[in-house]
Amino acid sequence: MSIDPPVTHVLFDMDGLLLDTEAVYTKVTNDIVSRYGKTYDWDLKSKMMGMKERDAGELLVRTLGIPMTVDEYLAERNAGHEALFPHCRPLPGVMKLVSHLKKHNIPIAVATRSHRSAFELKALGNPLVDPRSCLVFEDSNPGVLAGLNAGMSVVWIPDPNLKTDDPTLGERVSDVLGSMEEFQPEKYGLPPYE
């Protein structure tokens, strides 16, 4: 498979794709809700992924019926994240690819929706002329859909616990991989690994 035009920019979703943060999100929320005899499972987590912080908090509090306000939940959750995020490590294959792209002067951007009400994208001083020349790495269904809707090429590295309501999603992306280690840059017009 060849991408036309060739990739000139790469966009990474940070959480769960570059850094092993998904375990932190799950642990912190489970620690909070378990005090009330509740469990934060993948069914609820998948509904919350991609939502704005407050909307996700409201869904969690309402669905699990925990006796906390949304503000109380978010304050405790954010404090737990701040304590654990500094210990997150890059996922397999990430450092190899990021170093490779940097070596070949391929502009890289990182996107995240965590703790933000708006999605920000910066192409690091190199304007993106054609969205089709931007390769997006995503793990969440909403992120994949956002990349596709923007007209970008999407490499989907789904979390094995995450289910999708769209059985055609895998057919609509450029590639579906088990991890970043499986990525082959030359398939996208990027310099091959040495």
Task: List the SSEs and their pairings.
Blueprint: E1 9-13, H1 22-34, H2 42-48, H3 53-64, H4 70-84, H5 94-103, E2 108-111, E3 134-138, H6 141-149, E4 153-156, H7 169-172, E5 175-176
Parallel strand pairs: 1-2, 1-3, 3-4, 4-5
Describe this protein's structure.
This protein has helices spanning 22-34, 42-48, 53-64, 70-84, 94-103, 141-149, 169-172; strands at 9-13, 108-111, 134-138, 153-156, 175-176. It is an alpha/beta fold and 194 residues long. A 5-stranded parallel sheet has the order 2-1-3-4-5, with helices on both faces.
Instruction: Tell me the number of structural domains.
Output: 2
Strand content: 5-15%
Largest sheet: 5 strands, parallel
Count of runs of 4 or more consecutive helical residues: 7
Characteristic key phrases:
5-stranded parallel sheet; alpha/beta; DNA polymerase, domain 1; 10% strand; Rossmann fold
What's this, in brief?
This protein is an alpha/beta fold and 194 residues long.
